[in-house]
């Protein structure tokens, strides 16, 4: 089975504090780097389970981009998507002494991926998995034109080919009714509708995977 996972590939920087943070001073800590991003993580897990996995997204041709690309490729994932000169996303996770995690996301060029940059051959698969972040860039206060068009050509091709589609998202809105919390690009279409219902209409989705 060939699985295409559309989403982010970023550099994860995890800082584990060994003492309470010392404001305006040094705090002993342990730091680790790894490849991350919702879309990349799904592709890596699919590859580990024996699938022919492909990641699709936008990354930069910079030191961070080359590091995470090499890491994902070593895990058996085929990388596709437009490459910008720089701007690979970096997400810093600060873990305090109690184990509580605070995240500082910079998705970089990932939020600039436009449907017109997606080549049809990149979507040749048996199963398409979509990261909710890739469709709703408002998650970090950004907005990308084009994703609000239900008639986006490549999505029509996916539907016509009978490819199974799943989407992974997270409950950022009030749980009751999944009230939509979206950027202005989606405001008119989803006013009064749930976020999940809108995404289902957008991609003809068959299954939602909720992050809790």
Task: Characterize this entry briefly.
The protein is an alpha/beta fold. It has helices at residues 38-48, 63-74, 132-135, 153-160, 184-190, 195-203, and strands spanning 2-6, 10-17, 29-36, 52-56, 59-60, 78-80, 83-84, 88-95, 101-108, 127-131, 164-169, 207-210.
Structure description:
This protein has 212 residues and is of the alpha/beta class. The protein has one domain (2-8, 37-88, 109-210): UDP-N-acetylmuramoyl-L-alanine:D-glutamate ligase (3-Layer(aba) Sandwich), CATH 3.40.1190.20. 24% of the residues lie in helices and 30% in strands. It has helices at residues 38-48, 63-74, 132-135, 153-160, 184-190, 195-203; strands spanning 2-6, 10-17, 29-36, 52-56, 59-60, 78-80, 83-84, 88-95, 101-108, 127-131, 164-169, 207-210. The strands form three sheets. A six-stranded parallel beta sheet has the order 6-4-1-10-11-12, with helices on both faces. Strand 8 (88-95) and strand 9 (101-108) form a beta hairpin. The longest helix has 12 residues, at 63-74. The chain is elongated, with a radius of gyration of 18 Å. Residues 138-151, 171-196 and 198-212 have low confidence and may be disordered.
Number of helices: 6
The helix content is: 10-25%
Distance between the ends: 28 Å
Radius of gyration: 18 Å
Which descriptors would you attach to this protein?
single chain; 212 residues; alpha/beta; UDP-N-acetylmuramoyl-L-alanine:D-glutamate ligase; six-stranded parallel beta sheet; four-stranded mixed beta sheet; 6 helices; elongated; disordered C terminus
């Amino acid at each position: 089975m060939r699985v295409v996972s559309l989403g982010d590939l970023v550099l994860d920087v995890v800082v584990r504090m060994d003492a309470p943070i010392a404001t305006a001073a040094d705090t002993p800590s342990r730091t680790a780097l790894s490849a991350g991003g919702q879309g990349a993580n799904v592709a890596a897990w699919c590859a580990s389970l024996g699938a022919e996995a492909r990641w699709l997204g936008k990354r930069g041709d910079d030191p961070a981009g080359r590091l995470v690309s090499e890491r994902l490729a070593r895990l058996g994932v085929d990388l596709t998507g437009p490459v910008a000169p720089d701007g690979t996303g970096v997400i810093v996770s600060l873990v305090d002494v109690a184990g509580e995690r605070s995240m500082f996301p910079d998705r970089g060029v990932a939020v600039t991926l436009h449907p017109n940059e997606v080549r049809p051959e990149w979507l040749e698969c048996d199963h398409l998995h979509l990261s909710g972040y890739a469709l709703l860039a408002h998650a970090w206060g950004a907005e990308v034109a084009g994703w609000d068009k239900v008639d986006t050509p490549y999505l029509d091709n996916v539907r016509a080919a009978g490819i199974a589609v799943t989407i992974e998202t997270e409950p950022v809105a009030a749980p009751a009714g999944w009230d939509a919390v979206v950027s202005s690009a989606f405001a008119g279409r989803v006013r009064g509708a749930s976020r999940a219902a809108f995404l289902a209409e957008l991609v003809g989705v068959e299954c939602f995977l909720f992050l809790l």
